[in-house]
Amino acid sequence: MSETTKKRPRFSRVGRWLAELVLVFVSVYAAFWLNNYQQHQQEINRPDQILASLEQGFRRGIKSGRIAAAKEERQSAEFRRALNLDQDISLFYDPATKKLRKRFEIYPQALDATVTFAHDLDRTKNELLNQIQAERKRR
After folding, report:
1. pLDDT in tens, 47-64
2. Which of 17, 62, 106, 130 is most buried when burial is the number of CB atoms within 10 A of its CB?
């Protein structure tokens, strides 16, 4: 019987050791699985986070673009009014031809082009913002 008692403690120690080994293995496996799951969830949410950030940036850009466009329109209107004042305008106009002097001919066109560009930029940003919002809704 002494052999049986010797085998029993040895068998119970091996069994306990195996149980602890299985428990450690399962715990480590569960930790890896949980980490993988969390990374997968972050990868799923990443495109939406990027789109949200882009959307926010474009909203700010559109707002500042509208402010800049309004400023350009005011400057253009002020310049046109300055050209038509009944003051000594010989600096801008050639009295003989009643046309803008060569060095000022580009200003009205440049101001108009700037205003047009500001409006086109605003329209393009709005279109892109709509595309971003549509993409976010699809997700």
Report:
1. 888 888 988 998 898 888
2. 62
